[in-house]
Amino acid sequence: MISSVLLAAAIAAGCPEQTRALNSAADVIERTYLDARVAGQIAADVRAWARAGRYSDVCQDRDAFMARFNRDLDVYDGHFHFERPGVEDTGDDWLTAWRAESRKVNAGVREVRVLEGNVGYLRLTSFYPWDLAGPKLKAAFALLAETDGLILDLRQNGGGDDQTAGQLAGAFLGPDVTAVQDVDMRGRKEADPLPKLDLPRYSADRRVAVLVDRRSASASEFVAYSLQAAGRAKVIGSRSGGAAHLLDDPIPVAGGYAIMVPNARPINRTTGGNWEGRGVRPDMPGGDDPLHVARQWLAQR
């Protein structure tokens, strides 16, 4: 027993940067993770990994170390992200790069059509910041304004800007709905208001179907879950990814690394819960062609 402890200590000592990074990450997790009790357990496990030299075989390979550590953290919460920013990077570099990509993908507004039967179709692949996505969505809603029903396709939409997602939810719920959820941070609950509506409202007397799949996550799940909980839309497809927890900005840790820690969870005001881990559960399966299923449901009216 003593020899194994000494061996583990020797392994850890042979990779000091990695050990410092793990212990520093554990401190941040313990201090900021959304559930204080769970935070202590995750932090204890990470410190144990540091003592045991869990990643010592990739001591000189930072990319491999980060990839394996992220996979291990995913077991506890898929929102953790451990990274090593470049020497000249600032905290806003990732946002600058993401914004620059918006032009190539039309700010996430990938397809807008009026289908046969006067059914609107809107496919969104991401939620870019409102200053980029707002003009595109306003143009889309202008085209869809006179449709008799609408299909909102959020399949393979991994999320993005929460204000843009809030604008979209608000367009279907109407200006009288000022909030659909609260945010819980270690037992402290705060209101999470929807942004002031800047999109045209989609008429409340027209049906809405939302398509999701296992790659729908985060902000796209927020839209689907909120509309479903409010009884405003029928969700069709397969269970979504189950990423409800909210993230703060990356926090620097030892060794030039940084970690993003889930620090809050949404609490829907209607259901009292959220979609973390479970995903948004469809009202109807989509089968081989969710779009066809949605069109059939809209045609039943």
* The named CATH superfamily of the largest domain: 2-enoyl-CoA Hydratase, Chain A, domain 1
Return the average pLDDT rounded to an integer. 93
Any idea what the radius of gyration is? 22 Å
Alpha plus pi helix count: 9
Overall helicity: 25-40%
Strand content: 15-25%
Distance between the termini: 72 Å
Structure description:
This protein is of the alpha/beta class and 301 residues long. It folds into two domains: 75 residues, no CATH class; 207 residues, 2-enoyl-CoA Hydratase, Chain A, domain 1, CATH 3.90.226.10. The protein contains nine helices and 13 strands. Helix 7 packs parallel to helix 8. The protein is elongated. The N and C termini lie far apart (72 Å). About 2% of the residues have low confidence.
Brief rundown of the structure:
This protein is α/β, with parallel strands linked by helices and 301 residues long. It is built from 9 helices and 13 strands.
Write the layout of secondary structure elements.
Layout: H1 2-13, H2 16-32, H3 36-52, H4 62-74, E1 81-83, H5 93-101, E2 109-115, E3 119-124, H6 130-144, E4 149-153, H7 162-173, E5 179-185, E6 188-193, E7 207-212, H8 219-229, E8 234-237, E9 246-247, E10 251-253, E11 257-260, E12 262-268, E13 284-285, H9 290-299
Parallel strand pairs: 3-4, 4-7, 7-8, 8-13
Antiparallel strand pairs: 1-11, 2-3, 5-6, 5-12, 9-12, 10-11
Helix pairs in contact: 2-3, 7-8
Attribute tags:
301 residues; alpha/beta; 2-enoyl-CoA Hydratase, Chain A, domain 1; 6-stranded mixed sheet; 21% strand; elongated
